[in-house]
Design a protein that fits this description.
Four copies of one chain form a homotetramer. The N and C termini of chain A lie far apart (43 Å). In chain A, a hairpin with a 2-residue loop joins β1 and β2. In chain A, strands 1, 2, 3, 4, 5, 6, 7, 8 and 9 form a nine-stranded mixed β-sheet that branches. By secondary structure, the first copy, chain A, is of the alpha/beta class. Chain A is globular, with a radius of gyration of 20 Å. Chain A has a single domain, classed as HybD-like (Rossmann fold, 3-Layer(aba) Sandwich). β9 of chain A pairs antiparallel with β9 of chain D. Chains A, B, C, D: GO terms for molecular function: metalloendopeptidase activity. Chains A, B, C, D: This is Germination protease. Chains A, B, C, D: InterPro entries: Pept_HybD-like_dom_sf (IPR023430), Peptidase_A25 (IPR005080).
Chain lengths: 333, 333, 333, 333
């Protein structure tokens, strides 16, 4: 399918990346795609609706609602900013739950995809470690549960290489047995743009699709497969070396174009070919040498921990009315 | 049931502890219980068969086959000894599999119970991290699997406090979906004797029973519940403070009896009462003060890691004919 | 020396333990020892001054000022309580610094003793990881340092078994080179009472003495040795099995005495002998069997992390005027 | 100094990188530089002697002896290969020690530079954790030390941001106090070539120079500063995004040149400028956007652990005659 090939080519899991590529430098509008951008105090929230198949094909993303929080300064370790991001994320999650028809008493299963022992892939399991799960109280002592809490469970299914079982199979098995009303899946992603790595949170109502994420999660977690709404939360934690290179070549072209009108002579043939062709070229060079490594910033340990904390905090507040900005720290560590 | 109460009273998960308590100091024989002890070079292997209900009641353990490897020097970090223990453990596992009717092609699911973030409870998840799983190859590229391997999968289901779901429910769900022929469950245990903590491996064909283990795994993993044979591997990593105290009082009584015939006057009333009454007494003192802590040796990090490695090494060798003492390091790290 | 033997016998590093033992059950006053106890909302602060040699001999502690914060509920993981403890600890540290003549511009070197890889011994290194060090700015860009900060450096010297060098030698070397005005040393301790483990913080102006702490730090860090004031912060994270047993026997005696007047017959000879003799007896029983393990509660990972965070937070606030309760989170993670 | 600027420009810490750049694509010989390449079974050992100042200037490296082990397959996690690399590394280290005049009884201090909490910078501290240190035995029980051991101590001094003290100051302080005869310093490096990251070990007799390594170790550890020979062991664990891009552009140029003779038109102006100018250009584009991240492969956790183990194993065998290929596992974990 064109969609997949194209996304594979650029190797991004972010709708905002795909949209920008489809628009090109000219920022042309795409029919069937609605976009709303809000900026506040260092946080840019972009809400994209992919409304029809044409728009889906144009940007290479399935139809659905995508929200992206971009926080360029998130890598600075500023705890004040982190708290504000958690608050915005809580608000967006509440909207999402409402739109997906997940009401205050719906039972939610949170799935932390990825591998705890590969730092850039550890986001999902780290979030799970910090969630406030309550299902056990509803099962064991239902009349003692205080108001303001819903039934939340959570699982980190591990990765195929460690378990021998597709994580989607594990999730499906648990869904069959515990019958949640909705799934929220958290996964580490790849981005085509280095500056979005570890600074961006994407929420989408489309679940997890085959080939997304940085690990091996082939079958996907979607409403079609699982039978309940499935919201996906993703954070790009890695880039392919080839996308970095391709990105810079693109940036150089833009950069020179501003300085000179002799573009052609600067970049030569590289300038004439389209982005995907150029990317193939970059890969053709990199792959025989075994270099198309997936890379991550060297401070990844701290970045992933900080973002996992933001997401866990936001989920705890969004899912339980009794948890809010004031007392959330008591539930998350 | 008497069995459970008694075992609760002494808080041990080791059949060898229960047997010794039932025998008392005099080492009397118990009808319906067959025992075989083999000693080699620092390793004592005790094979106990609880053959009938009377024996089960007598020692407070369900009927079944129990093998215990006791290695008093295991806490010294001697890698030579560790390799020999892994080799003995492999042999015992192979016997167990054969006796349980698990043949060379039976599909095995290994379950690592416990919590990775609580060191003394992390044994199961640590073993899972070092297993050689193969189910994915049998599923995806069945004709490319070399001879000498069987289908092995593994899961660390987490604990109730983190997932909100009983680990037995998670295992049951995965068993229903992936249809293994046998289960091997690994769990950290409590022992009544401090010297067995982190020096003992117990294997039993009885699965995991309610109340066993040091975490919350209420429903149990047994052949009756899961429908397939379930072998349990356990290592005591903790003791209750009360059992330490009780143990020492017992040791003091024995000690003094050897030195004097005035026992009564030394221990007073403590000497007249039975072990369980005395233990209740110790707890009566400890619990109001909130002291009946579960304790573990301070070097627990290293101890658990070493034993997890021995078990993973042994399982890899016992389950795959192609893996043996020479090449096992290549599969385990 | 009597002092050392006695403290060795009971194996405690807490002055409050030593004082209680010297007082016996009757809580008799000890000449030369001044004590002040303040209780607020779940925190008991005991300030002890050992004023003369007689008092020092009586309780088996060197002369000096000792403050103990006891927080029995600290093991419950309540973040509100943790914040209040950090605030009280900050206040006590500020008093200590003032009393020790360490003024607002004195340069402080913080020493985190212990081994990061042995959880109950990891307190010191964990605190160091969360401190706000500033010495580098005073060295490199002195005119850009904002007011309200002092020069703070920190070191985790490791343990003898890993470095081959006494940690006191490493500290001495760094003191000689960097010339701090005062030392604050953090170490994990042993307590004789299980309920004080992981619930108690001791601050003392006496430095670290040979044989204290749970690792191998023979030479000590004291004003006499290092030439500058040395404040010691300690948290008991372990108990000896023998002290647990001895403790319970003592508790049983007290317990029975309340219920009956037949004490003698209950405990027999155990009742007639003094605490130290009884302890020797307990050890005589335990040691030949190699059981006198140092034990720690099984939840030690979380306990140590929480307390390390409290101490780092408190030190950051006590040492820098610009850091206070409101913004301290921004400096500590 | 030209040297530094040039090395900064390409941001590499590997002499082999510098040499290749100085040679250009034509592999021209450089006067004053002696090179010897040995290939065996997947391991390429390159021994470079920078004999005079002219050669030093030519390649931008100080005079000295450099050995590089390149093992392209090291990232595959093959334990057999790891053992062979450890054996080759042992041999090279033994040569190095002999050449540097460090005899069998010389006292060695091993310094593990870097930050344990930043995975790509954790190589040094990880090696230290696995070394066999013996100095304490020579100090405490000198007549009980078996033959075949020398006096080895080790320190992980931490990083400036955590300690507030330059690591070179900490090392100098410890050298002054413990008087070793030689230093071996281990550090994580940056490479200009992605394929050398985590596959290469460099040993050099030049110590650690200002600006080398991926952290802040400004003052350097050299024979001139410390007064004793200082051998540096380094492994590139990171790349700058800019060097990846630059590298690929270079590779594209080579690639196209083979396919076509219209090179100019393909790469345009990029082709006419020298490598350093092109790199400046790449940086000019990347830096304003804050993108010149230091990146590392996503599997860095496992890669660093494996290589740290190889180095520790090799050092233990090279430093102690009594430790060899057969028993080295008993000393390293």
């Amino acid at each position: 399918m064109t969609l997949d090939l194209q996304n594979y080519a650029v190797r991004t899991d972010l709708a905002i990346d795909s949209k920008e590529m489809a628009q090109g430098g000219q920022k042309q509008t795409i029919p069937g795609l609605r976009e709303d951008v809000e900026k506040k105090d260092g946080i840019t929230i972009t809400r994209i609706d992919v409304l029809d198949d044409a728009a889906a094909t144009a940007i290479g993303r399935v139809k659905g609602h995508y929200v992206t929080l971009e926080v360029p300064s998130l890598r600075n370790g500023d705890t004040d900013l982190q708290e504000r991001v958690a608050a915005e994320f809580t608000r967006e999650m509440e909207d999402f739950l409402a739109k997906a028809g997940i009401n205050k008493t719906s039972k939610v299963l949170i799935v932390g995809l990825g591998n705890l022992n590969v730092t850039p892939d550890s986001l999902g399991p780290l979030v799970v470690e910090n969630l406030m799960v309550t299902r056990q109280y509803f099962e064991l002592v239902p009349d003692q549960v205080a108001p303001g809490y819903r039934e939340v469970s959570a699982i980190a299914p591990g990765v195929l290489g460690t378990t021998g079982i597709e994580s989607s199979d594990i999730v499906q098995a648990i869904v069959d047995r515990t019958k949640p009303d909705a799934i929220i899946a958290i996964d580490a992603l790849a981005s085509r743009s280095l500056e979005r790595v570890n600074t961006t949170i994407q929420v989408a109502d489309i679940g997890i699709h085959p080939g997304s994420g940085i690990g091996n999660k082939r079958r996907g977690l979607t409403r079609e497969i699982l039978g309940v709404p499935c919201i996906a939360i993703g954070v790009p934690t890695v880039c392919y070396a080839s996308t970095i290179v391709n990105n810079v070549i693109e940036m150089m072209r833009t950069h020179f174009r501003q300085e000179t009108d002799q573009t052609k002579q600067i970049m030569g043939m590289l300038d004439d070919i389209g982005e995907n062709d150029r990317l193939s070229l970059v890969k053709e060079v990199l792959e025989p040498l075994g270099h198309d490594l997936i890379v991550t910033p060297k401070e990844i340990d701290e970045f992933v921990e900080d973002i996992a904390n933001i997401i866990a905090t936001g989920l705890n507040a969004a899912l339980h009315d009794a948890v809010n900005a004031e007392n959330v720290a008591a539930y998350t560590h």
